């Protein structure tokens, strides 16, 4: 074998194995606002995206045309009465609408035509989107509630009977709520979403949801049913976070329009108002934080059906709108995504059973049970067991301050009717758990008890896959994704049990793992809007978002609340979409300006520091100042992008000033040591590009030496866990980085897995006495690092959204093969390799309309990079 990289060219009409294939191409995967055929679009300039399906070598789009109109047949015939871009000689796959003004409550159709490199055209199918209210003044319904106050426990039920005598063309239910709701029509739940609408700063911005209910409208008599839950709006349970004292707290309320369009062209709207009726029901208590209590004896069968007798129900009352801003929930919904049945069951006694669901998760449990009327079942959830097999909640109930008898933590209560097999599943709560303990006030035979648990989270589409010859790597990837999904509930949380808080640090530390693995852009656009709502006039942000007021303390600094800059930037990197960065520009600027005002010497201690380290403590001023530099750098780049020249020059100077101040105070140039030389201090300086070029080699050597001295074990907290593997890998120490990543003894990520963890933990030490949640995401960088290392798949900041792909894979000595896939905006990127002694066969798929550059790792004999066009490529790499 010659000392070269060998590129095997593939003919345009053959795949990797020489099989013939068709040369068809077409635009596919059409989305509006990053959603498929969405309802309730409230923005004036929605974004359109698509992919080019074309497997030919060098496939690319050289031009496109987007047409939008109100008639689908006209769109099929290439006529758009609303917008027609004409043929534009561009390769864009993301464009912003720039046509005539869009009208509220209107269905639009669109398609895209693309031209390939040979000048041939191909059109997509027809996609659609519907605008929503677009203004609070387009609502016809009133905000209504029952006559109870915020301290009353039973959930309110509402109903409205109406009649239709015409043929329905289509029908949409628009519902906004302060609190949570479940909507039903004619006795059947509407849609598959749960826990709608999502948590926001309720006194500033409320979300409404649009449902297609065409199929559920009957000819003749109909009935609408609505149940309201407390959610985060009326937090009755007590915890250290003071959500019960939130400034918005009140009895839940809702506003609804059911808009029906008939085939004869007429329409009518059934709206919430005084003609609705209300009653209590079997949900006698509900808390998003602790649980739900259900008395099956109080069920009113058929309460949401047209022929129900509601003569004993009460009238409703009007309420003022809780916020002026009521906007569509333009994000993927929360759903019950996976189902789990018990892997084992342990009978404690004739009243108590413990079920192992086999997976730690965020979710809910459905219980079917039979027994004597009034029998009380307590359905308790947790992550650990005592030695006697009973449920142990001591690691997660530490911040609960409520009454454990009347409002037990992570516990549902079911009171049996005695008339039938009762079925209960909470509507307005979720928990973090692996084990479920059911205890009964009366003896209960296991044959009379059936439970099923559901993994509940934002239903984001998978975008990444890791398959290697290492079981530990594969398990770590799965475990990380389980933790990530467990902490995605319309906003990223720290843990699904103890807190459910949107800790900002956890959110940005795991952001690359998030985007390599899942299509989460709409979740983060919603969450950064929450940031904008919570930001103080002086620029300060709380470190949990949303918040009822907690989190504006002295430590809510840069290492946490840099989310305001880092997440919009990463959205731009992964999606090539700068809308979020543009929308948040002034907020980033206000934040950086605030830190600048309190940091006249460009150094700051504003932050929490390297949270939950193994043993070594890192300098707070160093780590916080590094994030100050990161934010200023992002801001200067954004200013340049948006043509704000004065801002660009100002914040470019600021970033350089910060970098200079850090190096002058913390870098010993002669030794190549930052601070006291901890893994965190050295790796953060390298990872975030603080180190001067002429000192990088020395600093990286010291970091590697530090890692070798620890036996390739971690000695970091959350900030170091983000930086360490990247700093080693990107500075010539790929083998050391991999050894740390797959270490399976304490302290390491692998230590958790070999000890049976199915999600990431909060503490490296399994025997720690505090910070011991078993489902946390703050150490989640590991899941994304496999894409950046074994796959080597990286976005190019100069051509973001993987328009140009940087391929920098590593080939560790102890790994035989690896296949990493990421679905980029242009399509599937596949980075696959297999070793045979010192020869690596590297197979790459570059999606149509993209290019790539392959950079050999440091242990390759040939160091020259290689440009790759779209298509499949095989590269032979000889290792040293």
TrEMBL record:
Question: What's an example of a GO molecular-function annotation for this chain?
Answer: hydrolase activity
Name of the protein this chain belongs to: alpha-L-rhamnosidase
Upper taxonomic classification of the species?
Bacteria, Pseudomonadati, Bacteroidota, Sphingobacteriia, Sphingobacteriales
Q: Which SUPFAM superfamilies does the entry mention?
A: Six-hairpin glycosidases
Look up keyword Plastid and say if it applies.
Answer: no
Domain Alpha-L-rhamnosidase concanavalin-like: where? 347-457
Report the EC code(s) recorded for this entry: 3.2.1.40
Residues forming the Alpha-L-rhamnosidase C-terminal domain are: 797-864
């Amino acid at each position: 074998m010659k000392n070269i990289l060998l590129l095997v060219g593939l003919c345009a009409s053959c795949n990797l194995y020489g099989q013939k294939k068709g040369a068809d191409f077409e635009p596919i995967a059409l989305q509006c606002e990053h959603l498929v055929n969405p309802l309730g679009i409230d923005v004036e300039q929605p974004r359109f995206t698509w992919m080019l399906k074309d497997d030919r070598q060098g496939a690319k789009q050289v031009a496109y045309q987007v047409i939008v109109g109100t008639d689908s047949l006209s769109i099929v015939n290439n006529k758009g009465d609303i917008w027609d871009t004409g043929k534009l000689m561009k390769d864009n796959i993301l464009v912003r609408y720039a046509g005539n003004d869009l009208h509220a409550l209107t269905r639009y159709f669109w398609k895209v035509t693309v031209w390939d490199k040979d000048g041939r055209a191909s059109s997509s199918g027809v996609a659609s989107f519907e605008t929503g209210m677009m203004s609070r003044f387009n609502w016809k319904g009133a905000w209504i509630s029952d006559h109870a106050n915020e301290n009353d426990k039973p959930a309110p039920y509402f109903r409205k009977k109406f009649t239709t005598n015409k043929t329905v063309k289509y029908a949409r239910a628009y519902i906004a709520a302060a609190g949570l709701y479940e909507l039903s029509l004619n006795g059947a739940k509407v849609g598959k979403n749960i826990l709608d609408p999502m948590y926001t700063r309720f006194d500033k911005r409320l979300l409404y949801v649009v449902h297609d209910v065409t199929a559920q409208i009957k000819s003749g008599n109909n009935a609408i049913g609505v149940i309201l839950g407390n959610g985060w709006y009326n937090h009755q349970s007590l915890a250290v976070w003071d959500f019960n004292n939130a400034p918005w707290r009140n009895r839940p309320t809702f506003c609804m329009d059911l808009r029906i369009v008939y085939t004869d062209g007429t329409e009518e709207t059934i709206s919430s108002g005084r003609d609705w009726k209300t009653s209590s029901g079997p949900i006698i208590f509900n808390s998003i934080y602790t649980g739900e209590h259900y008395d099956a004896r109080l069920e009113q069968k058929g309460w949401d059906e047209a022929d129900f007798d509601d003569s004993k129900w009460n009238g409703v009352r009007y309420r003022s709108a809780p916020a002026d801003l009521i906007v569509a929930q333009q994000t993927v919904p929360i759903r019950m995504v996976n189902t789990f049945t018990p892997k084992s069951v342990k009978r404690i006694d004739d009243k108590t059973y413990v079920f192992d669901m086999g997976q730690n998760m965020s979710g809910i449990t459905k219980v079917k049970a039979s027994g004597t009327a009034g029998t009380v079942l307590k359905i308790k959830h947790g992550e650990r067991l005592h030695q006697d097999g009973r449920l142990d909640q001591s690691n997660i109930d530490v911040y609960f301050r409520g009454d454990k008898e009347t409002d037990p933590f992570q516990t549902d209560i079911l009171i049996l009717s005695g008339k039938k097999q009762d079925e209960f599943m909470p509507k307005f709560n979720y928990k973090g758990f692996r084990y479920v303990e059911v205890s009964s006030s009366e003896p209960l035979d296991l044959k009379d008890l059936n439970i099923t648990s559901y993994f509940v989270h934002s239903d984001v589409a998978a975008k990444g896959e890791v398959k290697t010859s290492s079981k530990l790597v594969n398990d770590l990837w799965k475990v990380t994704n389980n933790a990530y999904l467990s902490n995605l509930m319309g906003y990223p949380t720290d843990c699904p049990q103890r807190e459910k808080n949107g800790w900002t640090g956890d959110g940005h530390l795991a952001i690359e793992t998030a985007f390599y693995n899942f299509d989460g852009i709409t979740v983060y656009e919603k969450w950064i809007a929450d940031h904008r709502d919570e930001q103080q006039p002086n620029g300060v942000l709380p470190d949990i978002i949303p918040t009822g007021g907690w989190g504006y303390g002295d430590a809510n600094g840069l290492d946490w609340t840099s989310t305001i800059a880092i997440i919009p930037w990463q959205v731009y990197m992964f999606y090539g979409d700068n809308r979020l960065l543009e929308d948040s520009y002034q907020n980033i600027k206000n934040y950086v300006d605030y830190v600048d005002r309190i940091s006249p010497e460009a150094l700051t201690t504003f932050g929490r520091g390297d949270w939950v380290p193994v043993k070594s403590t890192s300098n707070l001023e160093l780590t916080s100042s590094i994030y100050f530099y990161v934010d200023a750098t992002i801001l200067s780049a954004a200013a340049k992008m948006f043509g704000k020249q004065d801002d660009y020059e100002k914040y470019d100077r600021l970033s350089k000033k910060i970098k200079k101040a850090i190096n002058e105070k913390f870098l010993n140039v002669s030794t190549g040591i930052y601070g006291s030389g901890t893994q965190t201090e050295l790796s953060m300086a390298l990872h975030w590009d603080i180190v001067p070029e002429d000192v990088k080699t020395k600093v990286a050597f010291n970091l590697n030496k530090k890692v070798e001295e620890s036996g390739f074990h971690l000695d970091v907290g959350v900030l170091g866990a983000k930086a360490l593997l990247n700093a080693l890998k990107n500075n010539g120490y790929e083998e050391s980085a991999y050894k740390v990543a797959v270490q399976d003894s304490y302290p390491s990520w692998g230590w958790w897995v070999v000890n049976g963890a199915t999600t990431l933990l909060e503490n490296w030490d399994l025997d720690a006495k505090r910070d011991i949640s078993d489902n946390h995401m703050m150490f989640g960088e590991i899941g994304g690092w496999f894409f950046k290392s074994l796959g080597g798949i990286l976005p190019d900041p100069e051509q973001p959204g993987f328009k140009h792909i940087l391929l920098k894979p590593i080939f560790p000595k102890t790994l035989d093969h690896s296949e990493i896939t990421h679905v980029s905006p242009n399509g599937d990127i596949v980075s696959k390799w297999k070793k045979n002694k010192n020869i690596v066969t590297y197979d790459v798929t570059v999606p149509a309309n993209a290019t790539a550059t392959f950079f050999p790792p440091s242990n390759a004999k040939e160091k020259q990079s290689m440009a790759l066009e779209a298509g499949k490529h095989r590269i032979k790499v000889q290792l040293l």
